[in-house]
Amino acid sequence: VPAAPPAPLGCDDPESVAAAEVAVNYINGHSHHGYKFALNIIKDIHVVHQGPNNDLIFLELDLLETRCPILSPTPLENCTVRSFAEHAVEGDCDVKLQKVDGTLSVLASKCHSHADSSEDIRKVCPGCALLASLNNTEVLETVSAALNDYNSKTTDSYLRLLEIGRAKIQYHPVHSVVTEFAVGATNCSAEEAKANAGACQLLPEDQSNFGFCTAVMVKHPSQDLQVDCQLYGHQVPAPHTPLLSWRQDTS
Amino acid sequence: SVTKRAVADAAQHDKVPRPVGFVPPPPPCPGKILHFDI
Question: What are the chain A neighbours of B31 within 8 Å (beta carbons)?
């Protein structure tokens, strides 16, 4: 009598959790936009035996967006998952892995991300701000004003916009626009950029040349703009600044 | 000629007496929700 086939792998089995961890790290490592995602649910797992110590593993995962931008050096386990009230974004991913002699490697992955429905948010939090389109006029105005404001006050490198990561607009009780956007340091200081910003080039693609800003523009009842930028690494040292001191955090 | 014999109904699993305190295993999938369900 042939041996019974092994019981199907459960989604919460250690082997499944290990495969999901490899898959999520691969997805975050190969994404260049937006934010890091964390595992929420292992929806399904299917193992196809290829031979001795050789399996193909098909995973279906539900991920949730964290607050860490994709370029942030913060490790994923230290990244907070955006809460439901923050208008969470979910990622549906299908990942194919191979496990040879116990070593897992990702062969292919496909993800679709989508924001939670506004209706769901309103049911739970009627007054919560909702995600806005990234090319919304108010959002673009806020990002532009915030970056100009930051560059006008900084004594460090002139920052250029890389991408808008997220934006929310609230109308009551205060009309406000909250944005998050990725920036890149350039080869100019902010002072030099005042003369000719067009000549400022982005520094080579290195994590330390990137940063992330959050900006809040209040429009009604009073006008107010707050911007906070955090750069991940070194700055273009101003000529008079001794090398050691520019490692200070700029936020 | 072919005759069809009556066969008793197959026993239904849920009618099999379970030992006291028996907890059925969790379904293999989907797994548990680590954060919240969206």
Answer: 10-12, 16, 41-43
